[in-house]
Amino acid sequence: MLIEQYATYIGEGNIEEIKAVAEPLKGLKVLHVNSTKLGGGVSEILYRLIPLMRDLGIDAEWQVIKGDEEFFKVTKKIHNLLHMPGHDRLTSEDIITYMRTTHTNLSYIDTSPYDIVFIHDPQPMGLIVNKRQGQKWIWRCHIDISTPDEETWKFIEMFVNAYDAIVFHIAEFAKEGVKIPKFIIAPSIDPFHDKNVELDRNFITSTLEKFGIDPKRPLVLQVSRFDRLKDPFGVLQAFKMVKRACDCQLVLAGGYASDDPEGEEVYNEVMEEASKMKDVFVLNLPPDSHYEINALQRAATVVVQKSIREGFGLVVTEAMWKEKPVVGGNVGGIRRQIVNGFTGYLVNSIEGTAYRIRQLLINSEMAKVMGRNAKERVRHTFLITRQLKDYLVLINYLINSDHIQR
Amino acid sequence: MGEFRFKSEVWTSEYTGIKANTIHAFLKALRHVHEDVIYYHLYRNIFEFHYLPLDYANSFAYWMAENGYYVLAEKLSVIDPLQYTSLEDIRHDIIRILEDSGEDLDVLCSKPFYFIRAVRMAVDLNIVAKDLESFVNGLKKIGWHSLFYHLVTARLKLGKPINDFSRWFESIGEAELAREIEKVNLWAHTLREVKGQLISIVERKLYAH
Q1: Interface pTM (ipTM) of the complex?
Q2: Domain range enclosing B184
Q3: Residue A298: is its pLDDT beyond 70?
Protein backbone atom coordinates (compact mmCIF):
# COMPACT_ATOMS: atom_id res chain seq x y z
CA MET A 1 0.00 0.00 0.00
CA LEU A 2 1.11 3.55 -0.76
CA ILE A 3 0.35 4.69 2.79
CA GLU A 4 2.72 2.08 4.18
CA GLN A 5 5.68 3.70 2.43
CA TYR A 6 5.35 6.50 4.97
CA ALA A 7 6.17 4.08 7.79
CA THR A 8 9.81 4.83 6.93
CA TYR A 9 9.30 8.28 8.35
CA ILE A 10 6.62 7.99 11.01
CA GLY A 11 6.64 4.33 11.99
CA GLU A 12 4.21 1.53 11.34
CA GLY A 13 2.09 2.29 14.40
CA ASN A 14 1.09 5.71 13.13
CA ILE A 15 0.10 4.22 9.78
CA GLU A 16 -2.15 1.72 11.59
CA GLU A 17 -3.83 4.62 13.41
CA ILE A 18 -4.52 6.40 10.13
CA LYS A 19 -6.02 3.19 8.72
CA ALA A 20 -8.26 2.89 11.79
CA VAL A 21 -9.51 6.47 11.39
CA ALA A 22 -10.21 5.84 7.69
CA GLU A 23 -12.04 2.56 8.36
CA PRO A 24 -15.54 4.10 8.85
CA LEU A 25 -15.05 6.16 5.68
CA LYS A 26 -14.45 3.27 3.28
CA GLY A 27 -16.49 3.69 0.12
CA LEU A 28 -17.26 7.34 0.88
CA LYS A 29 -17.14 9.55 -2.20
CA VAL A 30 -14.93 12.60 -1.69
CA LEU A 31 -14.25 15.31 -4.25
CA HIS A 32 -11.52 17.95 -4.14
CA VAL A 33 -11.88 20.94 -6.47
CA ASN A 34 -9.27 23.60 -7.10
CA SER A 35 -8.21 25.81 -9.97
CA THR A 36 -5.04 24.19 -11.27
CA LYS A 37 -3.44 20.76 -11.64
CA LEU A 38 0.04 22.20 -11.87
CA GLY A 39 1.99 24.56 -9.68
CA GLY A 40 1.26 25.93 -6.25
CA GLY A 41 1.05 24.36 -2.84
CA VAL A 42 -2.58 23.19 -3.18
CA SER A 43 -2.02 21.02 -6.24
CA GLU A 44 1.23 19.66 -4.79
CA ILE A 45 -0.64 18.39 -1.73
CA LEU A 46 -3.63 17.07 -3.72
CA TYR A 47 -1.31 15.26 -6.08
CA ARG A 48 -0.38 12.98 -3.19
CA LEU A 49 -3.41 13.28 -0.91
CA ILE A 50 -5.88 11.85 -3.45
CA PRO A 51 -3.92 8.60 -4.02
CA LEU A 52 -3.45 8.27 -0.26
CA MET A 53 -7.18 8.65 0.38
CA ARG A 54 -7.93 6.11 -2.35
CA ASP A 55 -5.37 3.78 -0.86
CA LEU A 56 -7.37 3.88 2.37
CA GLY A 57 -10.56 2.82 0.59
CA ILE A 58 -12.06 6.28 0.15
CA ASP A 59 -13.38 7.01 -3.32
CA ALA A 60 -11.50 10.31 -3.68
CA GLU A 61 -11.33 12.36 -6.84
CA TRP A 62 -9.85 15.66 -7.90
CA GLN A 63 -11.36 18.02 -10.43
CA VAL A 64 -10.17 21.35 -11.71
CA ILE A 65 -12.40 24.26 -12.75
CA LYS A 66 -12.03 25.93 -16.11
CA GLY A 67 -11.69 29.64 -16.59
CA ASP A 68 -10.35 32.18 -19.04
CA GLU A 69 -7.79 34.88 -18.37
CA GLU A 70 -10.48 37.38 -17.44
CA PHE A 71 -11.91 35.00 -14.81
CA PHE A 72 -8.53 34.36 -13.22
CA LYS A 73 -7.81 38.09 -13.17
CA VAL A 74 -11.00 38.54 -11.17
CA THR A 75 -10.20 35.65 -8.81
CA LYS A 76 -6.69 37.04 -8.30
CA LYS A 77 -8.30 40.34 -7.38
CA ILE A 78 -10.68 38.56 -4.99
CA HIS A 79 -7.71 36.71 -3.50
CA ASN A 80 -5.80 39.97 -2.93
CA LEU A 81 -8.82 41.80 -1.54
CA LEU A 82 -9.64 38.98 0.85
CA HIS A 83 -6.04 39.10 2.01
CA MET A 84 -6.17 42.84 2.71
CA PRO A 85 -8.00 45.96 1.52
CA GLY A 86 -6.21 47.74 -1.30
CA HIS A 87 -6.77 50.52 -3.80
CA ASP A 88 -8.67 48.11 -5.99
CA ARG A 89 -12.31 47.14 -5.52
CA LEU A 90 -14.58 44.44 -6.80
CA THR A 91 -16.81 45.83 -9.57
CA SER A 92 -20.17 44.65 -10.92
CA GLU A 93 -18.35 43.52 -14.07
CA ASP A 94 -16.02 41.40 -11.93
CA ILE A 95 -18.97 39.76 -10.22
CA ILE A 96 -20.63 39.05 -13.57
CA THR A 97 -17.38 37.49 -14.87
CA TYR A 98 -17.09 35.38 -11.72
CA MET A 99 -20.71 34.20 -11.88
CA ARG A 100 -20.60 33.52 -15.63
CA THR A 101 -17.56 31.24 -15.32
CA THR A 102 -19.00 29.62 -12.21
CA HIS A 103 -22.15 28.89 -14.22
CA THR A 104 -20.06 27.23 -16.94
CA ASN A 105 -18.21 25.15 -14.36
CA LEU A 106 -21.49 24.04 -12.78
CA SER A 107 -22.37 22.18 -15.97
CA TYR A 108 -18.84 20.86 -16.32
CA ILE A 109 -18.20 19.58 -12.79
CA ASP A 110 -20.85 17.22 -11.46
CA THR A 111 -20.65 17.38 -7.68
CA SER A 112 -23.87 15.45 -7.09
CA PRO A 113 -22.41 11.91 -6.68
CA TYR A 114 -20.14 12.92 -3.80
CA ASP A 115 -20.72 12.73 -0.06
CA ILE A 116 -17.99 15.22 0.81
CA VAL A 117 -16.81 18.13 -1.34
CA PHE A 118 -13.62 20.05 -0.55
CA ILE A 119 -13.42 23.39 -2.35
CA HIS A 120 -9.96 24.94 -2.32
CA ASP A 121 -9.69 28.73 -2.24
CA PRO A 122 -12.11 31.30 -3.69
CA GLN A 123 -11.94 30.39 -7.40
CA PRO A 124 -14.32 27.36 -7.32
CA MET A 125 -16.37 28.32 -4.27
CA GLY A 126 -19.45 29.31 -6.28
CA LEU A 127 -19.99 25.61 -7.07
CA ILE A 128 -21.75 25.46 -3.69
CA VAL A 129 -25.00 26.44 -5.43
CA ASN A 130 -25.18 22.81 -6.56
CA LYS A 131 -24.98 21.45 -3.02
CA ARG A 132 -27.57 18.77 -2.48
CA GLN A 133 -29.13 17.58 0.75
CA GLY A 134 -26.99 15.16 2.72
CA GLN A 135 -23.71 16.38 1.31
CA LYS A 136 -21.05 18.08 3.41
CA TRP A 137 -19.12 20.89 1.78
CA ILE A 138 -15.84 22.21 3.17
CA TRP A 139 -14.15 25.41 2.09
CA ARG A 140 -10.38 25.02 2.40
CA CYS A 141 -9.16 28.58 2.66
CA HIS A 142 -5.41 28.85 2.13
CA ILE A 143 -5.16 32.58 2.74
CA ASP A 144 -5.35 34.99 5.64
CA ILE A 145 -8.83 36.54 5.51
CA SER A 146 -8.81 38.10 8.98
CA THR A 147 -8.83 41.67 7.65
CA PRO A 148 -10.43 41.57 4.20
CA ASP A 149 -11.85 44.30 2.04
CA GLU A 150 -15.38 44.37 3.44
CA GLU A 151 -17.21 44.64 0.10
CA THR A 152 -15.35 41.63 -1.30
CA TRP A 153 -16.01 39.71 1.91
CA LYS A 154 -19.73 40.46 1.69
CA PHE A 155 -19.80 38.91 -1.77
CA ILE A 156 -17.82 35.83 -0.70
CA GLU A 157 -19.72 35.48 2.59
CA MET A 158 -22.93 34.65 0.76
CA PHE A 159 -21.25 31.50 -0.56
CA VAL A 160 -19.31 30.79 2.64
CA ASN A 161 -22.40 30.53 4.82
CA ALA A 162 -23.74 27.68 2.71
CA TYR A 163 -20.72 25.52 3.54
CA ASP A 164 -20.62 23.10 6.47
CA ALA A 165 -17.11 24.06 7.56
CA ILE A 166 -14.13 26.23 6.74
CA VAL A 167 -10.57 25.09 7.20
CA PHE A 168 -7.84 27.66 7.91
CA HIS A 169 -4.09 27.16 8.28
CA ILE A 170 -4.01 28.99 11.62
CA ALA A 171 -6.67 30.58 13.83
CA GLU A 172 -5.28 34.08 13.21
CA PHE A 173 -6.32 33.78 9.55
CA ALA A 174 -10.02 33.37 10.39
CA LYS A 175 -12.52 36.13 9.70
CA GLU A 176 -14.32 37.17 12.86
CA GLY A 177 -18.04 36.54 12.95
CA VAL A 178 -18.12 33.61 10.53
CA LYS A 179 -20.92 31.43 11.83
CA ILE A 180 -20.06 28.04 10.35
CA PRO A 181 -17.55 25.74 12.12
CA LYS A 182 -13.95 26.81 11.60
CA PHE A 183 -11.25 24.16 11.68
CA ILE A 184 -7.54 24.74 11.98
CA ILE A 185 -5.46 22.38 9.90
CA ALA A 186 -1.89 23.30 9.02
CA PRO A 187 -0.64 22.39 5.56
CA SER A 188 2.15 19.87 5.16
CA ILE A 189 4.95 18.58 2.99
CA ASP A 190 5.39 15.23 1.31
CA PRO A 191 8.72 13.57 2.08
CA PHE A 192 8.48 11.70 -1.24
CA HIS A 193 8.12 14.86 -3.34
CA ASP A 194 11.10 15.65 -5.59
CA LYS A 195 11.66 18.73 -3.43
CA ASN A 196 12.16 16.62 -0.34
CA VAL A 197 13.58 13.22 -1.32
CA GLU A 198 17.05 12.28 -0.14
CA LEU A 199 19.71 13.27 -2.68
CA ASP A 200 23.03 11.84 -3.62
CA ARG A 201 25.96 13.86 -2.22
CA ASN A 202 27.51 14.13 -5.70
CA PHE A 203 24.31 15.60 -7.13
CA ILE A 204 24.27 18.25 -4.39
CA THR A 205 27.90 19.20 -5.05
CA SER A 206 27.46 19.29 -8.82
CA THR A 207 24.34 21.46 -8.45
CA LEU A 208 26.34 23.98 -6.42
CA GLU A 209 29.19 23.91 -8.91
CA LYS A 210 26.77 24.38 -11.79
CA PHE A 211 25.80 27.73 -10.27
CA GLY A 212 29.39 28.66 -9.36
CA ILE A 213 28.83 28.21 -5.62
CA ASP A 214 31.75 26.93 -3.56
CA PRO A 215 30.64 23.67 -1.87
CA LYS A 216 33.32 24.02 0.78
CA ARG A 217 32.27 27.40 2.19
CA PRO A 218 29.26 28.12 4.42
CA LEU A 219 26.06 28.88 2.59
CA VAL A 220 23.12 31.07 3.62
CA LEU A 221 20.00 30.44 1.54
CA GLN A 222 16.61 32.02 0.99
CA VAL A 223 14.22 30.27 -1.39
CA SER A 224 11.27 32.40 -2.42
CA ARG A 225 9.67 33.99 -5.43
CA PHE A 226 10.91 37.51 -6.19
CA ASP A 227 8.40 39.45 -4.17
CA ARG A 228 8.85 42.44 -1.86
CA LEU A 229 6.87 40.65 0.86
CA LYS A 230 9.67 38.08 1.03
CA ASP A 231 12.09 40.95 1.71
CA PRO A 232 15.05 39.88 -0.46
CA PHE A 233 16.57 43.35 0.04
CA GLY A 234 16.45 42.86 3.80
CA VAL A 235 18.25 39.54 3.37
CA LEU A 236 20.96 41.24 1.27
CA GLN A 237 21.45 43.90 3.95
CA ALA A 238 21.59 41.27 6.70
CA PHE A 239 24.14 39.32 4.67
CA LYS A 240 26.33 42.43 4.39
CA MET A 241 26.37 42.64 8.19
CA VAL A 242 27.15 38.93 8.57
CA LYS A 243 29.98 39.11 6.03
CA ARG A 244 31.90 41.46 8.28
CA ALA A 245 32.39 38.63 10.76
CA CYS A 246 32.01 35.40 8.80
CA ASP A 247 33.18 34.01 5.52
CA CYS A 248 30.02 32.83 3.77
CA GLN A 249 28.00 32.88 0.58
CA LEU A 250 24.40 33.89 -0.01
CA VAL A 251 21.98 32.30 -2.45
CA LEU A 252 18.63 33.90 -3.25
CA ALA A 253 16.83 31.25 -5.27
CA GLY A 254 13.36 31.62 -6.71
CA GLY A 255 11.48 32.73 -9.73
CA TYR A 256 8.63 34.81 -11.00
CA ALA A 257 5.79 34.07 -13.37
CA SER A 258 6.04 35.37 -16.94
CA ASP A 259 2.84 37.36 -16.36
CA ASP A 260 4.11 38.92 -13.14
CA PRO A 261 5.62 42.33 -14.03
CA GLU A 262 6.27 43.14 -10.38
CA GLY A 263 8.24 39.91 -9.97
CA GLU A 264 10.47 40.83 -12.87
CA GLU A 265 10.98 44.30 -11.45
CA VAL A 266 11.96 42.91 -8.03
CA TYR A 267 14.27 40.37 -9.65
CA ASN A 268 16.06 43.11 -11.64
CA GLU A 269 16.45 45.28 -8.54
CA VAL A 270 17.81 42.35 -6.54
CA MET A 271 20.25 41.55 -9.35
CA GLU A 272 21.46 45.13 -9.41
CA GLU A 273 21.95 45.22 -5.66
CA ALA A 274 23.65 41.83 -5.62
CA SER A 275 26.03 42.80 -8.40
CA LYS A 276 27.64 45.27 -6.00
CA MET A 277 28.33 42.49 -3.49
CA LYS A 278 30.73 39.55 -3.31
CA ASP A 279 29.59 35.95 -2.88
CA VAL A 280 25.94 36.57 -3.64
CA PHE A 281 24.15 34.30 -6.13
CA VAL A 282 20.72 35.27 -7.41
CA LEU A 283 19.14 32.29 -9.15
CA ASN A 284 16.01 32.73 -11.22
CA LEU A 285 14.93 29.11 -11.57
CA PRO A 286 12.09 27.55 -13.60
CA PRO A 287 9.12 26.43 -11.45
CA ASP A 288 9.94 22.74 -11.85
CA SER A 289 13.50 23.02 -10.44
CA HIS A 290 12.58 20.76 -7.53
CA TYR A 291 15.81 18.78 -7.39
CA GLU A 292 17.91 21.95 -7.64
CA ILE A 293 16.01 23.63 -4.79
CA ASN A 294 16.25 20.40 -2.79
CA ALA A 295 20.02 20.32 -3.36
CA LEU A 296 20.46 23.97 -2.38
CA GLN A 297 18.45 23.42 0.82
CA ARG A 298 20.50 20.36 1.70
CA ALA A 299 23.75 22.22 1.02
CA ALA A 300 22.79 25.27 3.09
CA THR A 301 24.38 25.96 6.45
CA VAL A 302 21.58 28.31 7.49
CA VAL A 303 18.23 28.86 5.78
CA VAL A 304 16.50 32.23 5.94
CA GLN A 305 12.86 33.13 5.31
CA LYS A 306 12.72 36.79 6.12
CA SER A 307 9.13 37.36 5.00
CA ILE A 308 7.27 40.50 6.01
CA ARG A 309 3.93 38.75 5.47
CA GLU A 310 3.46 35.03 4.95
CA GLY A 311 0.66 32.51 4.47
CA PHE A 312 2.15 29.40 5.95
CA GLY A 313 5.60 29.25 4.39
CA LEU A 314 6.03 25.59 3.48
CA VAL A 315 9.50 26.42 2.22
CA VAL A 316 10.41 26.76 5.92
CA THR A 317 9.00 23.27 6.56
CA GLU A 318 11.03 21.87 3.67
CA ALA A 319 14.27 23.31 5.06
CA MET A 320 13.44 22.07 8.58
CA TRP A 321 12.84 18.59 7.19
CA LYS A 322 16.38 18.73 5.80
CA GLU A 323 17.71 19.37 9.30
CA LYS A 324 18.41 23.04 8.73
CA PRO A 325 18.07 25.72 11.39
CA VAL A 326 15.82 28.40 9.91
CA VAL A 327 15.92 32.12 10.66
CA GLY A 328 12.41 33.29 9.83
CA GLY A 329 10.33 36.44 10.00
CA ASN A 330 8.07 36.48 13.04
CA VAL A 331 4.89 36.46 10.91
CA GLY A 332 2.00 34.19 9.84
CA GLY A 333 2.63 30.48 9.64
CA ILE A 334 6.39 30.90 10.12
CA ARG A 335 5.62 31.64 13.78
CA ARG A 336 3.78 28.33 14.02
CA GLN A 337 6.68 26.35 12.63
CA ILE A 338 9.89 27.74 14.03
CA VAL A 339 10.28 27.18 17.74
CA ASN A 340 12.43 30.14 18.70
CA GLY A 341 15.77 29.03 20.07
CA PHE A 342 14.94 25.34 19.58
CA THR A 343 14.58 24.74 15.82
CA GLY A 344 15.83 28.13 14.61
CA TYR A 345 15.05 31.74 15.32
CA LEU A 346 12.16 34.12 14.80
CA VAL A 347 13.33 37.61 13.90
CA ASN A 348 11.72 41.02 13.67
CA SER A 349 14.35 43.10 11.88
CA ILE A 350 17.24 43.04 9.43
CA GLU A 351 19.64 43.37 12.37
CA GLY A 352 17.96 40.43 14.12
CA THR A 353 18.31 38.38 10.95
CA ALA A 354 22.02 39.20 10.70
CA TYR A 355 22.61 38.46 14.38
CA ARG A 356 20.93 35.05 14.24
CA ILE A 357 22.59 34.01 10.96
CA ARG A 358 25.96 34.95 12.44
CA GLN A 359 25.18 33.08 15.65
CA LEU A 360 24.32 29.91 13.72
CA LEU A 361 27.34 30.17 11.42
CA ILE A 362 29.68 30.56 14.37
CA ASN A 363 28.10 27.83 16.52
CA SER A 364 28.02 24.91 14.14
CA GLU A 365 27.23 22.38 16.90
CA MET A 366 24.24 24.42 18.05
CA ALA A 367 23.10 24.73 14.43
CA LYS A 368 23.28 20.94 14.07
CA VAL A 369 21.22 20.33 17.21
CA MET A 370 18.60 22.87 16.07
CA GLY A 371 18.51 21.22 12.64
CA ARG A 372 17.83 17.84 14.21
CA ASN A 373 15.10 19.34 16.41
CA ALA A 374 13.61 20.97 13.32
CA LYS A 375 13.39 17.65 11.48
CA GLU A 376 11.70 15.98 14.45
CA ARG A 377 9.18 18.79 14.68
CA VAL A 378 8.27 18.34 11.02
CA ARG A 379 8.07 14.56 11.42
CA HIS A 380 5.66 15.03 14.31
CA THR A 381 3.51 17.86 12.97
CA PHE A 382 4.01 18.89 9.35
CA LEU A 383 4.14 15.77 7.19
CA ILE A 384 1.32 14.94 4.79
CA THR A 385 0.29 11.96 6.94
CA ARG A 386 -0.70 14.37 9.75
CA GLN A 387 -2.74 16.46 7.33
CA LEU A 388 -4.39 13.31 5.97
CA LYS A 389 -5.25 12.25 9.53
CA ASP A 390 -6.74 15.69 10.23
CA TYR A 391 -8.91 15.53 7.11
CA LEU A 392 -10.09 12.05 8.05
CA VAL A 393 -11.06 13.18 11.54
CA LEU A 394 -12.82 16.19 10.06
CA ILE A 395 -14.80 14.07 7.61
CA ASN A 396 -15.73 11.59 10.34
CA TYR A 397 -16.85 14.48 12.50
CA LEU A 398 -18.94 16.13 9.79
CA ILE A 399 -20.74 12.99 8.69
CA ASN A 400 -21.65 12.31 12.31
CA SER A 401 -22.25 15.94 13.27
CA ASP A 402 -25.99 15.85 12.79
CA HIS A 403 -26.22 13.55 15.79
CA ILE A 404 -23.72 15.41 17.94
CA GLN A 405 -24.87 17.74 20.68
CA ARG A 406 -22.52 20.72 20.39
CA MET B 1 -6.56 -13.04 32.96
CA GLY B 2 -8.35 -10.11 31.29
CA GLU B 3 -7.24 -8.90 27.89
CA PHE B 4 -5.94 -5.47 26.97
CA ARG B 5 -7.35 -3.76 23.87
CA PHE B 6 -5.10 -1.16 22.29
CA LYS B 7 -7.05 1.89 21.27
CA SER B 8 -6.13 5.32 20.07
CA GLU B 9 -7.52 8.80 20.03
CA VAL B 10 -6.78 11.28 17.28
CA TRP B 11 -7.98 14.83 17.02
CA THR B 12 -8.22 17.84 14.81
CA SER B 13 -8.63 21.46 15.88
CA GLU B 14 -11.70 23.66 15.75
CA TYR B 15 -11.45 27.39 16.35
CA THR B 16 -14.33 28.28 18.68
CA GLY B 17 -14.52 31.83 17.32
CA ILE B 18 -13.81 33.10 20.84
CA LYS B 19 -10.91 35.51 20.99
CA ALA B 20 -9.83 37.22 24.22
CA ASN B 21 -8.04 40.57 24.37
CA THR B 22 -7.94 40.94 28.15
CA ILE B 23 -7.46 38.51 31.02
CA HIS B 24 -10.99 39.40 32.05
CA ALA B 25 -12.34 38.24 28.67
CA PHE B 26 -10.09 35.18 28.85
CA LEU B 27 -11.47 34.30 32.27
CA LYS B 28 -15.05 34.85 31.15
CA ALA B 29 -14.56 32.53 28.17
CA LEU B 30 -12.69 29.95 30.21
CA ARG B 31 -15.67 29.59 32.56
CA HIS B 32 -17.95 28.31 29.83
CA VAL B 33 -15.89 26.88 26.97
CA HIS B 34 -16.28 23.17 26.20
CA GLU B 35 -13.86 21.08 28.25
CA ASP B 36 -12.19 19.90 25.05
CA VAL B 37 -10.88 23.46 24.74
CA ILE B 38 -8.99 22.89 27.97
CA TYR B 39 -7.93 19.50 26.63
CA TYR B 40 -6.58 21.14 23.48
CA HIS B 41 -4.59 23.88 25.15
CA LEU B 42 -3.12 21.76 27.93
CA TYR B 43 -2.99 18.17 26.75
CA ARG B 44 -2.05 18.73 23.14
CA ASN B 45 0.89 20.63 24.56
CA ILE B 46 2.07 17.48 26.31
CA PHE B 47 1.65 15.58 23.04
CA GLU B 48 3.86 18.09 21.26
CA PHE B 49 5.83 19.21 24.28
CA HIS B 50 9.26 18.25 23.05
CA TYR B 51 8.74 20.09 19.79
CA LEU B 52 7.44 23.29 21.33
CA PRO B 53 9.05 26.29 23.01
CA LEU B 54 10.39 25.13 26.31
CA ASP B 55 9.87 28.25 28.40
CA TYR B 56 6.31 27.50 29.51
CA ALA B 57 4.20 24.36 29.66
CA ASN B 58 0.95 25.27 27.90
CA SER B 59 -0.65 27.77 25.52
CA PHE B 60 -2.43 29.65 28.32
CA ALA B 61 0.91 30.29 30.01
CA TYR B 62 2.50 31.31 26.72
CA TRP B 63 -0.17 33.84 26.06
CA MET B 64 0.31 35.35 29.52
CA ALA B 65 4.07 35.63 28.95
CA GLU B 66 3.61 37.11 25.47
CA ASN B 67 1.60 39.86 27.09
CA GLY B 68 4.02 40.50 29.93
CA TYR B 69 2.28 38.53 32.71
CA TYR B 70 5.34 36.48 33.61
CA VAL B 71 4.23 35.53 37.11
CA LEU B 72 0.91 34.23 35.83
CA ALA B 73 2.73 32.39 33.04
CA GLU B 74 4.83 30.59 35.64
CA LYS B 75 1.84 29.85 37.86
CA LEU B 76 -0.05 28.34 34.93
CA SER B 77 3.00 26.37 33.80
CA VAL B 78 3.25 24.51 37.05
CA ILE B 79 -0.19 22.99 36.48
CA ASP B 80 0.61 19.42 35.51
CA PRO B 81 -2.32 17.79 33.67
CA LEU B 82 -0.87 14.39 34.51
CA GLN B 83 -1.77 15.03 38.15
CA TYR B 84 -5.44 15.57 37.30
CA THR B 85 -8.24 13.16 36.54
CA SER B 86 -10.81 15.74 35.51
CA LEU B 87 -10.74 18.65 33.06
CA GLU B 88 -13.21 20.49 35.28
CA ASP B 89 -10.71 20.40 38.15
CA ILE B 90 -8.07 21.95 35.88
CA ARG B 91 -10.53 24.62 34.76
CA HIS B 92 -11.34 25.38 38.37
CA ASP B 93 -7.66 25.72 39.35
CA ILE B 94 -6.82 27.99 36.40
CA ILE B 95 -9.76 30.24 37.20
CA ARG B 96 -8.66 30.42 40.83
CA ILE B 97 -5.08 31.37 39.85
CA LEU B 98 -6.33 34.15 37.58
CA GLU B 99 -8.89 35.47 40.07
CA ASP B 100 -6.31 35.57 42.85
CA SER B 101 -3.63 37.17 40.69
CA GLY B 102 -4.16 40.72 41.85
CA GLU B 103 -3.55 41.88 38.24
CA ASP B 104 -5.72 44.49 36.57
CA LEU B 105 -7.74 42.08 34.46
CA ASP B 106 -9.02 44.70 32.06
CA VAL B 107 -5.69 45.82 30.57
CA LEU B 108 -5.77 45.35 26.80
CA CYS B 109 -3.33 42.63 25.69
CA SER B 110 -1.20 43.26 22.61
CA LYS B 111 -1.82 39.71 21.34
CA PRO B 112 -5.23 38.04 21.54
CA PHE B 113 -5.84 34.49 22.70
CA TYR B 114 -7.72 32.19 20.32
CA PHE B 115 -9.70 29.44 22.04
CA ILE B 116 -9.38 26.21 20.10
CA ARG B 117 -11.23 22.99 20.76
CA ALA B 118 -9.90 19.49 20.16
CA VAL B 119 -12.34 17.48 18.05
CA ARG B 120 -11.49 14.05 19.39
CA MET B 121 -12.10 10.67 17.83
CA ALA B 122 -11.38 7.39 19.60
CA VAL B 123 -10.61 4.33 17.50
CA ASP B 124 -10.08 0.67 18.25
CA LEU B 125 -6.83 -0.60 16.73
CA ASN B 126 -7.97 -4.23 16.89
CA ILE B 127 -4.79 -5.20 18.69
CA VAL B 128 -5.38 -7.34 21.76
CA ALA B 129 -2.93 -8.46 24.44
CA LYS B 130 -3.56 -11.44 26.64
CA ASP B 131 -0.14 -11.74 28.27
CA LEU B 132 3.17 -9.90 28.47
CA GLU B 133 4.39 -11.25 25.17
CA SER B 134 1.34 -10.20 23.18
CA PHE B 135 1.34 -6.89 25.08
CA VAL B 136 4.88 -6.05 24.00
CA ASN B 137 4.06 -7.08 20.44
CA GLY B 138 1.05 -4.79 20.55
CA LEU B 139 3.12 -1.96 21.95
CA LYS B 140 5.48 -2.25 19.01
CA LYS B 141 2.55 -1.87 16.59
CA ILE B 142 0.92 1.26 18.03
CA GLY B 143 1.54 4.91 17.18
CA TRP B 144 2.08 8.09 19.17
CA HIS B 145 -1.61 8.86 19.57
CA SER B 146 -2.36 5.43 21.00
CA LEU B 147 0.49 5.74 23.45
CA PHE B 148 -0.77 9.16 24.47
CA TYR B 149 -4.31 7.87 24.84
CA HIS B 150 -3.38 5.04 27.18
CA LEU B 151 -0.77 6.96 29.18
CA VAL B 152 -2.45 10.36 29.47
CA THR B 153 -6.06 10.61 28.33
CA ALA B 154 -6.98 7.39 30.13
CA ARG B 155 -6.68 9.25 33.44
CA LEU B 156 -9.50 11.54 32.37
CA LYS B 157 -11.58 8.80 30.83
CA LEU B 158 -11.66 6.69 33.97
CA GLY B 159 -11.19 9.49 36.48
CA LYS B 160 -8.32 7.57 38.07
CA PRO B 161 -4.76 8.79 38.61
CA ILE B 162 -3.14 5.88 36.81
CA ASN B 163 -2.39 5.09 33.18
CA ASP B 164 -4.18 2.30 31.31
CA PHE B 165 -1.13 0.08 30.94
CA SER B 166 -0.33 0.14 34.65
CA ARG B 167 -3.95 -0.49 35.52
CA TRP B 168 -3.94 -3.61 33.36
CA PHE B 169 -0.62 -4.80 34.76
CA GLU B 170 -2.05 -4.45 38.25
CA SER B 171 -5.07 -6.49 37.23
CA ILE B 172 -2.87 -9.34 36.02
CA GLY B 173 -0.73 -9.32 39.15
CA GLU B 174 2.22 -7.39 37.72
CA ALA B 175 2.21 -4.59 40.28
CA GLU B 176 5.93 -3.94 39.99
CA LEU B 177 5.68 -3.53 36.23
CA ALA B 178 2.71 -1.22 36.76
CA ARG B 179 4.81 0.99 39.05
CA GLU B 180 7.74 1.04 36.62
CA ILE B 181 5.50 2.11 33.73
CA GLU B 182 3.88 4.81 35.85
CA LYS B 183 7.34 6.20 36.61
CA VAL B 184 8.21 6.87 32.94
CA ASN B 185 8.28 10.64 32.69
CA LEU B 186 6.40 12.10 29.74
CA TRP B 187 7.83 15.54 30.33
CA ALA B 188 11.37 14.25 30.12
CA HIS B 189 11.04 12.16 26.97
CA THR B 190 9.40 12.36 23.57
CA LEU B 191 6.65 9.85 22.77
CA ARG B 192 9.06 8.03 20.46
CA GLU B 193 11.49 7.65 23.35
CA VAL B 194 8.72 6.70 25.77
CA LYS B 195 7.60 3.93 23.45
CA GLY B 196 11.14 2.51 23.38
CA GLN B 197 11.38 2.69 27.16
CA LEU B 198 8.06 0.91 27.69
CA ILE B 199 9.05 -1.85 25.30
CA SER B 200 12.33 -2.43 27.09
CA ILE B 201 10.70 -2.38 30.55
CA VAL B 202 8.15 -5.02 29.54
CA GLU B 203 10.71 -7.09 27.61
CA ARG B 204 13.05 -7.09 30.58
CA LYS B 205 10.27 -8.48 32.73
CA LEU B 206 9.23 -10.93 30.04
CA TYR B 207 12.69 -12.41 29.59
CA ALA B 208 13.25 -12.51 33.34
CA HIS B 209 10.21 -14.80 33.68
Answers
A1: 0.91
A2: 4-8+124-208
A3: yes
